[in-house]
Amino acid sequence: MRSLVFGAVAVLSAATLAGCAGNAPTPMQPAAAPAAATTKPAVATPPTTTTTAKGAKPTVTKAPVSDLSRLTKLGIDVQKSVLIDVADDGVDRWLNVSASGVDFTGTARTDGTMMFLAPAPVAASNSVLIKPPFYNEDLGPGYCVADTRGAALKLENCRAGRRQQIFTVVPAGDSGQFELHGMYGVIRVDNGKITTGGRGRTGLQTVLYAD
């Protein structure tokens, strides 16, 4: 009986050991190192351009400028320092700025008789501003000759869109002569004075100031 009991005990002991072995705790593994934090560099946001439509370019509106190319072809000096002379009267009578106004009283090359025909800011061809260079040396809008309801013209500050300051150069043939039409009509000259009432010469010409 001892041998049987011993055998049973042996068997029981073996089973117990086996069961204990099956329930043994799993050995602890080392904790995994935490993943290193990754920081991406900040990306600069490019400036945005606002357009009215996708891919459309901003519309640029150009201010009108009178075309004076025909005058140049006819021998009328524009965008140069000139004298404005009464044509075919046999004497030197040049447009002149003086204390009494702007009239054809000039007889010598002076600061008052030096003129400049600049393209006017209008769409119509052959339209000019008369800008005496001596009075336009400083920054700013400068001075322009303006038409008046009376006889003599006048010098005043240039003002965009002011009709009195815009003159139309009307060619008279192909010899370089022309008429000067202001807001109040064609410029007529009699004995060195601008006149009203339809009398006087209308033919004018440019003479280079430096000649």
Question: What can be said about this structure in brief?
Answer:
Helices cover 12% and strands 27% of the residues.
Can you tell me about this structure?
The structure is a single chain. The protein is α+β, with helices and mostly antiparallel strands and 211 residues long. It has a domain of 140 residues: Trefoil (Acidic Fibroblast Growth Factor, subunit A). Helix content is 12%, strand content 27%. It has 2 helices and 13 strands, in the order H-H-E-E-E-E-E-E-E-E-E-E-E-E-E. The strands form 4 sheets. It has a 7-stranded antiparallel β-sheet, with no helix packed on it. A hairpin with a 2-residue loop joins strand 2 and strand 3. The protein is globular and about 65 Å long.
Question: What are the key terms here?
Answer:
211 residues; alpha+beta; Trefoil (Acidic Fibroblast Growth Factor, subunit A); 7-stranded antiparallel sheet; two-stranded antiparallel ribbon; 2 helices; 13 strands; 27% strand; disordered N terminus
Q: In terms of structural class, how would the helical and strand content be classed?
A: alpha+beta
Order of helices and strands: HHEEEEEEEEEEEEE
Number of strands: 13
SS field, number of helical segments: 2
Cα distance spanning the termini = 155 Å
Topology diagram in text:
Elements: H1 2-22, H2 69-73, E1 81-86, E2 94-98, E3 101-106, E4 115-119, E5 127-130, E6 143-146, E7 154-157, E8 167-171, E9 178-182, E10 185-186, E11 188-190, E12 193-195, E13 204-208
Antiparallel strand pairs: 1-4, 1-13, 2-3, 4-5, 5-8, 6-7, 8-9, 9-10, 11-12
